[in-house]
Amino acid sequence: MSAISERRERERAHRHQLIITAARELAETEGWEAVTTRRLADRVEYSQPVLYSHFNGKDAIVSAVALDGFGELATHLRRARQAAPGPAHALRAVCRAYLDFATERPALYQAMFILPTELTFASAETPAPLRACFDEFVSCFPPANERRELFAEVLWGALHGIAVLSESGRIPPAGQEERIDLLVTRFADSPASPGTP
Amino acid sequence: MSAISERRERERAHRHQLIITAARELAETEGWEAVTTRRLADRVEYSQPVLYSHFNGKDAIVSAVALDGFGELATHLRRARQAAPGPAHALRAVCRAYLDFATERPALYQAMFILPTELTFASAETPAPLRACFDEFVSCFPPANERRELFAEVLWGALHGIAVLSESGRIPPAGQEERIDLLVTRFADSPASPGTP
DNA sequence: GCAGGATGTCTAGCGTTGCTAGAATTCGCT
DNA sequence: AGCGAATTCTAGCAACGCTAGACATCCTGC
To answer: Which of A106, A156, B71, B113 has its CA 20 to 30 A from that of B6?
Structure first.
């Protein structure tokens, strides 16, 4: 149970990641409806049952892809926020970065926010990347605002709504910039945050 | 081709609606994943192929349910708006009504906004009920606001995002009222709408 | 009243899906 | 070399959306 099983475990971990990236690539090129366990097994050059020795089922694979996506989204948002010339522009930068992410990686975004997921949100065992994403939204508002979390929730919801409605053609795909404009001007913190009476 | 075929056509139309309501009931009690063509055919006491003589496929049935949903949502929103004590309260009333609708009829809401649909949004041949829903949001803003439509789009997006994120547990289901509060205060029209320079 | 034809409905089945039991194989160890 | 265990594959299940072709039903014209 030494070097030999260590190597096996390493190989196993490698294959684990291989499955995830294969699923993601397949989804990004042909959409999630093309990601079947058979095609995925083909892609990783193993038979179907090995997928089930790594994941509890297809949903777990999708969730694993989604988790990677949250990690990437978190760094994407942080970079945008930190590159902004000042806190006043941070909000806009993060909003734009979020919508960019959603439109440029639609499959990944679907895995994160639309497909059934096994990830636990807003709870004690919420994975760090999810929390990091949320924190990026929180950081768009000054610490003086006692309701930053609420602001972050609503802003996130608004961005998600805009992203998904435009992606599915329920609102015109054009005009995203104006929507960001409106959202930003509406959410830019007022001088004194309206406190609860 | 007279009374006899008229009756047949009547019966056919009746069965058409029967399928739609059966699909909706099944979805509302057991969720859309339980709505299979076999179970639906069982429910309406016909064999599977008759479904396909009425609809092009399962998606078309879902879309028909969604269309009914849009009709109901439009009247729901209009009632709320008109019952509000004044235009200042209309915005809040409509927002609340929208989120109520989403949480009280989750299956219907899914058919309208989440499941793949054949309905055409934001186009020339957009069905009237969809347009009516959108118009309700537009009516929340004074005609003096030259960008009412943009406001409506973003508000709708925000509400949709909040609805779907909380429904799927991605933000805590509690605290909806505070989110409405924030959204309303942020979107309540400023005295002079910030015009484009 | 009764054959003929059109209309409508059902039975049966195709290909695919997610998932799994049990056979077969491989591989390290003594 | 051969045993034992871990791993991988073959084969198959039940359910899915959808459809072709057999079957029944009903109106029409004689």
So the answer is: B71
